[in-house]
Amino acid sequence: MKTLFRRGHALADPAAQLRVLSGPPPRGVDDGADARPPGPAADFNAALAAAELPSLAAAALDTLQVNVGKLCNMTCAHCHVDAGPDRKAENMSAATADAVLELLKVSGAGTLDLTGGAPEMNPQFRRMVRTARDLGRHVIDRCNLTILTAKGYKDLPVFLAQQGVEIVASLPCYTAENCDAQRGDGAFMKSVKALRLLNGLGYGSDPALPLTLVYNPVGPSLPPPQGKLEADYKTRLAEDFGVQFTRLFTITNMPIARYLDHLLETGKYGTYMEKLTAAFNPAAVAGLMCRTTLSVNWDGALSDCDFNQMLSLPLANADAAGPRPRNVHDAPAAELLDRVLNRPIVTGPHCFGCTAGAGSGCTGAIVDAAGA
């Protein structure tokens, strides 16, 4: 699969994605000839108001999530980043990495969450890991697993273990057929090989080396209950491959970039959006990641979350003090931090993806299946 960017696809432009998300859902092949005319896009803020909840606002900053670039050794079908081997130009520079690390230092945020693309392919990755660990911060590497066995990166598992980095790794199924359908032929067995290497270093058994796997549905459906699926994963991976891991996160597919293209191509976009909005769970709102996370793009641009970042939705523009900084280079770290705390959060129809069912975010399900 080629990236939308390489194909010159209209949806490579975040503005085009926003036009789809903000407009009436097109009638798809699943809707049938007698389906009602499509209505307007669902209003997330209206859903909050109907549930007697206030508009979203950021609270304390617990996590600085940094997308260091769109370069990746894979082109997964569900990727909301549209990452791939051809995205070499969109990679964080040393100067921007410096600004991010200074912001991490003054913010007091306990976690540096590094993502991509394959974040390990960025030249600043190891320096950022070392600096954050020297500051006493928890570091997460959002890893696709296959990079750990790729030429030029085979020393990464040892480096990550020595630094005590938590690995959060995508593995959309415990069977090769379903996993390869999303991630490409052979991806599953390469992932299993990487998991065995990590297990050999203590990942998944040593409490200091947590290994988290991430499930997302293969089709346009919500994830099953996280606890039950985790038990299934642990049984199957242990019995079939001798692999162990710490925990499982379930994450809902977001209607962004390549997954949005897939929904439109298969005529399932309208059906999927209706499913997300119908499953809106008010109990998930309090745990939304945007409330305690600040997202930084490879060029330093600031957003409320990784999904807003991919849609090029910047922070809310102004507060009582004037225009709000929207890039790590816009102001000294301490001043920038003061201006971005307690900000209103920019929302849109895609936000229903984080509040559907048990809720979803970078730390998996927000509430249990009963909504408690």
From TrEMBL:
* Domain Arsenosugar biosynthesis radical SAM protein ArsS-like C-terminal residues, every copy: 222-365
Q: Which UniProt keywords apply?
A: Iron, Iron-sulfur, Metal-binding, S-adenosyl-L-methionine
User: According to the lineage, what is the superkingdom?
Assistant: Bacteria
Which PANTHER family does the UniProt record give?
FE-S OXIDOREDUCTASE, SLR0304 PROTEIN
Molecular function as annotated in GO: catalytic activity; iron-sulfur cluster binding; metal ion binding
> Know the name of this protein?
Molybdenum cofactor biosynthesis protein A
What does UniProt list as this organism's lineage? Bacteria, Pseudomonadati, Planctomycetota, Planctomycetia, Planctomycetales
Q: So where does this one cross the membrane?
A: none
**Where is the Radical SAM core domain positioned along the sequence?**
66-199
Which Pfam families does the protein's record reference?
A: DUF3641, Radical_SAM
